[in-house]
Design goal:
This protein is mainly alpha-helical. It is 74% helix and 7% strand. The protein has three helices and two strands; from the N terminus they run ααββα. Strand 1 and strand 2 form a beta hairpin. The mean pLDDT is 89.
Amino acid sequence: MYFAICALALVWPGALLANRIEPLVMGLPFFIFWYVAWVFVLFVGLVIAYRRESMEEADDD
């Protein structure tokens, strides 16, 4: 479910919310910042999922 929400934020309807140039965030147009931020959020989610999976495998051994 987490990844589906993140994916929707990158395509319709999430892209419609961020489809503007102003305000500039860290020198980037808001639309570009939106995509960079969500890619980072997805990365953090993948790291958390990987660590949970690793811990479960370690407990099984």
